[in-house]
């Protein structure tokens, strides 16, 4: 074995039985979990997890990491007001190098807070993927599609060309395994004709699709006025749902939408923090799950939710269920699973990550339980959802590679990154 994690007080597995193990060791060989049990077999390196909880790395199923540079830029607005402010700022600074820089910052924030995988939709995906991989993140990215040139200045034919080049770009950059994705922004920025073309390319490439769907009531109304359909129906009728698809947000999915999504195997990245802050609404988490939809949790961008903290997202997801329904309807196990194995299923990685099982890739986090706010331990799932926080994460592994050790990145220098970020965002000063 390359590594043996031993003496862990608890191990939250997120396996099919939702087992929580005590005092077991976890062996890692060639980046994969090769042993789980009470013994302490030999290994090249040993990590003493005494007094700690080991859990699967958290999975952020919808975000825009590069927008970490716009944290706090657009406050006190709804989605439309947010977009107007953010697009102006992005137009001022978000060239390829800045997208890479912002993604480095976002990737580091994610890893330090226990998130090992992100579904990241943003401009200049080659650059963003390069930045995220440099920090050690399992970073799902893909070519972006708009009908119009947009902030990256690409014409439609250029977007199509980049889609066909994407697999080669991924191979050049390397990093932890990710599925191939294409990312049309939404049904309100991509015409049915263009969505049909993206769906066809996805079929040819064996790719999956990620796009925004039914984030607000205004979006649903807009699409209804244009096409006499819901966004989900547009996705169905353009062939988008004929390939594995994950919806960003899905706040205002109707019962019929949920039935369509479930029948087509579509999933949802639920972002309660962003939805609450922008006043977009309260997504029907339990109803989507009951319909058979895989629901993962996400943060959305730092520009709309202000951080990439998946612990706070778990907490807000539980509160939204309590508010929409009742506290008795909050299933804490399902909330933890929505940040781990169900999120992995939503993004198409449940055969590789999302749970602690032999044969899975070793995306793991260690949480220090030596804290007043984590004492005593009566219910571990309640502890994770309502009490634990990103500051409790001490160590992080992605595919067996320790990318965070003792709350510090093993890949990049934080102080140097902060300096580069602060220098770059000075270009926003004229817009203040």
Automatic annotation (TrEMBL):
Gene3D superfamilies reported in the protein's UniProt record: Metal-dependent hydrolases, Urease, subunit C, domain 1
Every Amidohydrolase-related domain range: 54-403
This protein's UniProt keywords: Hydrolase
Keyword Ligase included in the entry's annotation: no
CDD domains, alphabetized: ATZ_TRZ_like (cd01298)
GO molecular function annotation: hydrolase activity, acting on carbon-nitrogen (but not peptide) bonds
InterPro entries registered for this protein in UniProt: Amidohydro-rel, Metal-dep_hydrolase_composite, Metal_Hydrolase, MTA/SAH_deaminase
Pfam families according to UniProt: Amidohydro_1
UniProt protein name: Unannotated protein
Species: freshwater metagenome
């Amino acid at each position: 074995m390359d590594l043996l994690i031993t003496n862990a007080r608890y191990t939250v597995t997120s396996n099919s039985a939702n087992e929580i193990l005590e005092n077991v060791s976890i062996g890692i060989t060639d980046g994969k979990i090769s042993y789980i049990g009470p013994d302490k077999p030999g290994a090249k390196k040993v990590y003493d997890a005494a007094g700690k909880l080991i859990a699967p790395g958290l999975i952020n199923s919808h975000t825009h990491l590069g927008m970490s540079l716009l944290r706090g830029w657009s406050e006190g607005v709804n989605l439309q007001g947010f977009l107007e402010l953010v697009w102006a700022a992005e137009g001022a600074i978000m060239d390829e190098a800045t997208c890479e820089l912002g993604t480095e910052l976002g990737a580091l924030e994610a890893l330090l807070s226990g998130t090992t995988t992100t579904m990241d939709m943003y401009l200049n995906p080659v650059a963003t993927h390069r930045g995220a991989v440099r920090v050690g993140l399992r970073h799902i990215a893909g070519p972006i599609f708009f009908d119009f040139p947009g902030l990256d200045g690409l014409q439609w034919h250029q977007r199509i060309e980049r889609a066909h080049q994407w697999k080669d770009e991924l191979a050049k950059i390397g990093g932890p395994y990710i599925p191939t994705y294409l990312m049309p922004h939404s049904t309100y920025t991509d015409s049915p004709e263009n969505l049909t073309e993206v769906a066809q390319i996805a079929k040819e490439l064996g790719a999956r699709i990620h796009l925004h769907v039914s984030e607000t009531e205004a979006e649903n109304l807009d699409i209804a006025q244009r096409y006499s359909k819901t966004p989900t129906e547009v996705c169905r009728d353009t062939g988008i749902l004929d390939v594995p698809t994950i919806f960003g947000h899905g706040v205002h999915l109707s019962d019929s939408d949920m039935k369509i999504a479930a029948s087509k195997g579509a999933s949802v990245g639920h972002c309660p923090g962003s939805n609450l802050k922008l006043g977009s609404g309260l997504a029907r988490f339990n109803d989507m799950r009951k319909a058979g939809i895989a629901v993962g949790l996400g943060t959305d961008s730092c520009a709309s939710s202000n951080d990439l903290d998946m612990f706070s997202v778990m907490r807000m997801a539980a509160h939204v269920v309590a508010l929409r329904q009742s506290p008795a309807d909050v299933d804490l196990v399902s909330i933890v699973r929505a940040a781990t194995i169900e999120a992995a299923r939503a993004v198409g990685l449940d055969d590789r990550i999302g749970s602690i099982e032999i044969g899975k890739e070793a995306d793991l986090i260690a949480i220090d339980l030596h804290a007043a706010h984590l004492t005593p331990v009566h219910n571990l799932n309640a502890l994770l959802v309502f009490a634990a926080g990103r500051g409790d994460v001490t160590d992080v592994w992605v595919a067996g590679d320790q990318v965070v050790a003792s709350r510090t990145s093993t890949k990049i220098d934080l102080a140097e990154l902060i300096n580069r970020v602060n220098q770059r965002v000075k270009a926003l000063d004229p817009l203040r």
